[in-house]
């Protein structure tokens, strides 16, 4: 399962505003960001309980990519079939964050 924050970033807050309006909920796009920041961690914890188990063979890699014109470090855990199990995107190359991510992946 991927982290929720990057998944939501693929969709703009204006898109979410329009989707909620279609469902009869009127909300401004500027109020959605604080909700995401507040509740993403809790939702991710609950989803991790139901995360499907991975095989015994997987690997972690690190690469440097451009995101919206800025260079970022991408750490990925990939299983034997090449499916991304989890990933971490950071602005700086951080050994502590990479070790925390590795422990979380294990």
Helix and strand arrangement:
Blueprint lengths: L3 H6 L3 H10 L6 H21 L8 E10 L2 E10 L4 E7 L4 H11 L1
Antiparallel strand pairs: 1-2, 2-3
Helix pairs in contact: 2-3
Distance between the amino and carboxyl termini: 13 Å
Taking all residues together, what is the mean pLDDT? 78
Global structural class: alpha+beta
Characterize the biggest β-sheet.
Answer: 3 strands, antiparallel
Whole-number tally of structural domains? 2
Brief digest:
By secondary structure, the chain is an alpha+beta fold.
Describe the protein in words.
By secondary structure, this protein is of the alpha+beta class. It has 2 domains: 4-49, no CATH class; 58-105. Helices cover 45% and strands 25% of the residues. It has 4 helices and 3 strands. It has helices at residues 4-9, 13-22, 29-49, 95-105; strands at residues 58-67, 70-79, 84-90. Strands 1-2-3 form a 3-stranded antiparallel β-sheet, with helices on one face. It starts with a helix and ends with a helix.
List keywords for this structure.
106 residues; alpha+beta; 2 domains; 3-stranded antiparallel sheet; 4 helices; 3 strands; 45% helix; extended; disordered N terminus
